[in-house]
Amino acid sequence: MIFNNYTLPEELIANTPVTPRDKSKLLVVNRNNGDLKHRQFFNLVDYISSNDVLVFNDTRVIKARLIGRCVDTQADNCELFLLHREENGYFQALCKPGRKFKVGRTFVFKKGGSELVAEVIRKNEDGSILVDFKGISDEVFFDLLDQVGTTPLPPYIKNSKATDDQYQTVYAKNPGSVAAPTAGLHFTDELLDKLKEKGAALEYVTLRVGRGTFEPIKVDDYKDHDMHCELAEISDETAERLNKYKAEGRRIIAVGTTGVRTLESFAGVNGLAGGRKETNLFIYPPYEYKFVDALITNFHLPKSTLLLLVGALSGSALLKKAYAEAIEKEYRFYSFGDAMFIY
Length: 343
Hints:
Elements: E1 25-29, E2 36-40, E3 52-57, E4 59-61, E5 65-70, E6 78-85, E7 91-96, E8 106-111, E9 114-123, E10 129-133, H1 138-148, E11 174-177, H2 189-197, E12 201-207, E13 230-234, H3 236-247, E14 251-255, H4 257-266, E15 267-268, E16 271-272, E17 275-279, E18 294-298, H5 305-314, H6 316-328, E19 339-342
Parallel strand pairs: 1-19, 3-12, 3-14, 4-11, 14-18
Antiparallel strand pairs: 1-2, 5-6, 5-8, 6-7, 7-10, 8-9, 9-10, 12-13, 13-17, 15-16, 18-19
């Protein structure tokens, strides 16, 4: 039976990250013999060799929540939640109150001496809207967004004392995500240096995490779930190196489910092809992984697509066993929680 649901005591939902990052718990899962070991994340280096390649998602979380004023009606407290940036620069967004966000209306979002101006281009059937931040380059836009917006935390995190920096990986680079690639939150600069000293290769891809990552599966048959799209990118140079590593028989370790989706979306019969594309790849058992050999991941929500993705690698029975033991040992769950290394 496919493992996709479980009951989690509310007190095991992590509202604040561990400090330092790499002192979170690490459940090490051996797919070959079903063995489970309880370590701390900094012990990851003990399981990594010069034969390993770790692939990280270097996306950066944007301050996607904006509160401002409607220029046309002078109404205050109008809220935009930016979801996804399209290739033409427009943003898909959620808005409230929805009746204020009519097509053609302009909104101003200010903080200090900085401001962003957005015009509603379209209202979508699902209640979201398309907005245009006019005449601003990417660099200027994201700089202003950092000053004007606020960082949205996942809905299950309550009264968190986490700083914005704690919801970014230490290697975050390419802006565009509305949620963090949370497996990467456990890494420190010092741990990355130790991995390099072991001779492991560190490579970076980009997947801009969307709000859909939190959407539960609501249909009776999970195969009928409408999978969300996210923008993924691998440079030609990175794809070339990764193909070389794979041909050499080196172990490819994806850091996080977003890394998995990126690698598997670009994998074909001739290896990885570099490029940039929207992916709605939905991985569930008995999916056969084309490129990924092992996975570092957090503990995921019940009835989630991510739980199915992990189960396709570990096997459902072993994943169920691992989650049951993690709950018994009082691991911390979800974005600010503990991690697993499945190999």
